[in-house]
Structures are given as structure tokens and as C-alpha cells.
């Protein structure tokens, strides 16, 4: 993809476009809502057979986009043995965390501290650990679930750019995931300290969590929240958040806790709940 495409994204009013898309997606006007949904389903090949509701039963395009699935549509792997995929999508990158850096694409990386929006001391806890980046395509189920059991410790909302996220932009835009708007969520559990980062993108109208929060997407200032006294605990596979359009989840684990399954590589498709790693603490 040409550098002109990246330059165009840089000069576009990314947040204004995303807010406009968000207003359309939130509309409950029947003719607009149903037209958006039908055109989206046709354009991206969305499989509505596994959705709990059909066209005509959604309050808005957002309601459709964050649709729940029929019971049993995503069976969970054995969480006593495995780490679970938090979302439908495809592996973008995976590997070790070295020198405080995470690989984005060949020749490009970014720091743990900047994507998490945390201190150098907290980022250092992940040194020598493992990361995985999962890209969600438009047709995918867009709720994000827990890869392992854990109790929420802290979140950081970090405002930023809204570049589109795909293989081309990952290869062409420096520090893409650490530049885009994102919400990092840090947990403690049987698999140690781990993080799940929800990264926004162009036309992503919002990020939300299942617990009460005080951040607002497309805001201008970071929001850091401490949850250590609020006891939000989750089992592996529990829903933790959702995207209103877009994008990417980045997982980080401390060293000695998990090992990605042999043969798993960039480009491999994932389904929420499938095994992606062996638990070394199991």
C-alpha cells in the first residue's frame, strides 16, 4: 500500500469521521438502521446464523455490530490447561517481549510502557514474557472476552490517532498500536499479571467495558483508574468489553506463565474461546 494512503489517513479528520460514523451506527431510525445492517452483512459476508437475533431485531447498527451469539456458538477450551483466544479474528503477531519492546511487523516495534500507558516499573513486569496481537475484521464477532481468570487491577484509556488497522498499516505506520486510541486493562490471576489492550482504529466509534468506567472514547486526555478495591473478578471466557466498530486486541503475559501453542503463526484465524497457549502454571 502506498505512502500516499498513509499520508491521507494522517491528514483526514480521524476523530470527526469516527464520531460521524458513531452517530449513524447509534441511529434507531428503522430504514437507516436496517439498510446499514443489510449492506454491511452483504459486503463483509457476516454469518448471522450464529447470532442470537436476526435482522429486524436489533435496535441500531451498534446493537447489531456488538451482537451476542447463540448459546454454544463459541465452546471454550479447557481453561485449566490453556489460555483462551479473547476474540474472533486472526493472529497479527506473537512472540517474546524483549528489551521492553513488542514486535508490530518486520522492522517495526513499540514499547510495553507506551501501549499500556503505565510506569516503567509496571512495564518491566512483562520483560521476557509473551505477547499476541489479534486483528478483528469487520465480519467478526466484536465482543472481547477474558483469556484467563483474573481480577481487574487497573485500566488506562490513552487518547491517540485512529489509523486503520490491517496488515498494510501494521507494516507501514511506526508504532501503530501505541499511537492509536486504546484502553489497556491489567489483571492479576492464577497466570500472574496480564494485560488485554483494546486498540481503536479509523471509524471505530467506541470501546466499552462490562464494568463501570469513567473514560470517554475520542477524549483529549488520558484516564487512569485503579480497581484494586472494587473486586471485579472474571473467569476465563467471561465477556470483558466490546468494540463499536474496529479493531485489535493485544495480550501480554509475564515471563514463565504461558507458551503459545506450537504452529500458531501470523495470519492464522482464531475463534473466541479456542486454545492459543499452554498455561505453564497449570
UniProtKB/TrEMBL annotation:
Is synthesized initially as an inactive proenzyme. Formation of the active enzyme involves a self-maturation process in which the active site pyruvoyl group is generated from an internal serine residue via an autocatalytic post-translational modification. Two non-identical subunits are generated from the proenzyme in this reaction, and the pyruvate is formed at the N-terminus of the alpha chain, which is derived from the carboxyl end of the proenzyme. Keywords: Cell membrane, Decarboxylase, Lipid biosynthesis, Lipid metabolism, Lyase, Membrane, Phospholipid biosynthesis, Phospholipid metabolism, Pyruvate, Zymogen. Its cofactor is pyruvate. The record marks 246-247 as: Cleavage (non-hydrolytic). The modification Pyruvic acid (Ser) is found at residue 247. The lineage of its organism: Bacteria, Pseudomonadati, Pseudomonadota, Alphaproteobacteria, Sphingomonadales. Binds 1 pyruvoyl group covalently per subunit. GO terms for molecular function: phosphatidylserine decarboxylase activity. This is Phosphatidylserine decarboxylase proenzyme. It comes from the Bacteria. It is an enzyme of class 4 (lyase). GO terms for biological process: phosphatidylethanolamine biosynthetic process. The active site is at residues 88, 145, 247. It is a peripheral membrane protein. Belongs to the phosphatidylserine decarboxylase family. PSD-B subfamily. Prokaryotic type I sub-subfamily. Pathway: Phospholipid metabolism; phosphatidylethanolamine biosynthesis; phosphatidylethanolamine from CDP-diacylglycerol: step 2/2; Lipid metabolism.
Amino acid at each position: 500500500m502506498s505512502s500516499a494512503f498513509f499520508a491521507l489517513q494522517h491528514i483526514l479528520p480521524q476523530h470527526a469521521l469516527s464520531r460521524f460514523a458513531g452517530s449513524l451506527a447509534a441511529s434507531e431510525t428503522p430504514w437507516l438502521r436496517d439498510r446499514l445492517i443489510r449492506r454491511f452483512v452483504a459486503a463483509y459476508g457476516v454469518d448471522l446464523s450464529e447470532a442470537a437475533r436476526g435482522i429486524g431485531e436489533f435496535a441500531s447498527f451498534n446493537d447489531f455490530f456488538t451482537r451476542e451469539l447463540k448459546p454454544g456458538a463459541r465452546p471454550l477450551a479447557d481453561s485449566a490447561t490453556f489460555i483462551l483466544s479473547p476474540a474472533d479474528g486472526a493472529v497479527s503477531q506473537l512472540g517474546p517481549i524483549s528489551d521492553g519492546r513488542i514486535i508490530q511487523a518486520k522492522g517495526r516495534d513499540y514499547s510495553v510502557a507506551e501501549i499500556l500507558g503505565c510506569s516503567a516499573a509496571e512495564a518491566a513486569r512483562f520483560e521476557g514474557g509473551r505477547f499476541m496481537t489479534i486483528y478483528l475484521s469487520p465480519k467478526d464477532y466484536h465482543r472481547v472476552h477474558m483469556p484467563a481468570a483474573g481480577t481487574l487491577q487497573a485500566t488506562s484509556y490513552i487518547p491517540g490517532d485512529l489509523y486503520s488497522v490491517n496488515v498494510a498499516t501494521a507494516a507501514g505506520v511506526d508504532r501503530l498500536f501505541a499511537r492509536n486510541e486504546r484502553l489497556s486493562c491489567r489483571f492479576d490471576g492464577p497466570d500472574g499479571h496480564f494485560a488485554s489492550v483494546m486498540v481503536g482504529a479509523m471509524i471505530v466509534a467506541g470501546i466499552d467495558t462490562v464494568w463501570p468506567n469513567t473514560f470517554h472514547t475520542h477524549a483529549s486526555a488520558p484516564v487512569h483508574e485503579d480497581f484494586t478495591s472494587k473486586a471485579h473478578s472474571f473467569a476465563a471466557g467471561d465477556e470483558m468489553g466490546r468494540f463499536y466498530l474496529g479493531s485489535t486486541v493485544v495480550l501480554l503475559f509475564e515471563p514463565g506463565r504461558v507458551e503459545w501453542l506450537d504452529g500458531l503463526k501470523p495470519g492464522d484465524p482464531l475463534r473466541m474461546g479456542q486454545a492459543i497457549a499452554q498455561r505453564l502454571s497449570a
